[in-house]
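Session log. Operator J.P. requested a structure for one protein chain; no other inputs attached. Running the standard single-chain path with token output.
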Amino acid sequence: MATTPGQGPLTGVRVVELAGIGPGPFAAMLLADLGADVVRVDRPGGAGLAIDPAYDVTNRNKRSVIVDLKSPDGPTRVLDLAGRADILIEGYRPGVAERLGVGPEPCLARNPGLVYGRMTGWGQDGPLAHRAGHDIAYIALTGTLGTIGEPDRPPAVPANLLGDYAGGSLYLVVGVLAALHHARAGGAGQVVDAAIVDGTSHLSAMLHGMLAAGGWQDRRGANLLDGGCPYYGTYETADGGYMAVGALEPQFYEEFVTLMGLSEHAGDRKDRTRWGEQREAVAARFKSRTRDEWTALFEGSDACVAPVLSLREAPGHPHLAARGTFTDHGGITQPAPAPRFSATPTAVRTGPARPGADTAEVAREWDVPDLLEGPA
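Structure written below.
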């Protein structure tokens, strides 16, 4: 893989990622998208649940070396990399990195300014810290999963977006960048404990405020933002598609009911006793036309109505296409880096890193010659 010039506001920042699955790799991808030089330390044989490396977009903009941490000199090679890095990310269960010889103590001894980011579901301590788990269990305990879905059906599963990536990866990135700022301002390196249960709970801050104020009922499908409100939800169309409605404010609501031909409900916006009746009327009206017909009807309006698109459809939407929200690289359509920067633009510079493909480059550029000996 050819070396690419730095691109993005994190150009010059070095990151070591100890290979894992889920939120750790995505967090490292985000740092790489922002211009950091991310070296992924892959294990011989790859990680469980991993897809074909050629299609693993979460490994784009990175480079890879292979180190067997269970071999006698494997930990030393990782410590050599940590000694040259600004940030290290690991996603093992608590205590595993320590047993492998690459925990915070030896890494910070080698590099006192290092930011050591730890990504777990349950956190580094607590009764469940050593238990296995995945996104769905983490968000279940935080109360957030229980807010999603219809009141008479089981909670809806939001893929692994809410826990792994929103409550996990994004909080890890915020944490390591904040700690990096502290270190570069003259402070010491430190450990960042990013737990999905913490981050996902933090995401629900507004709901807890509304709950305390009496403005949120602690059950699904009964509130303004959880599908209980007839003008904030999804509706099926005549062809089996769906439209999303978010006409919350009075002026948007008025435009919505007018375009729907439901002006008789114009005065019902605040009347919760009529929500059921209104929902039935809106649902029946949406079933009378196709998704494309409704999309055309609401085109150019401020009714806050949009078609529900699939993953394959989304890149072709005119707005997303005009902004370049998605990009094609190496034959894979994928989301472009976000957010956007006026002075330090970002880009997909390279495709998914192939395990071990960049060992010689990293050994030379990071001055870690022992990597050239091959997998330990």
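Operator note: The chain has 13 helices and eleven strands.
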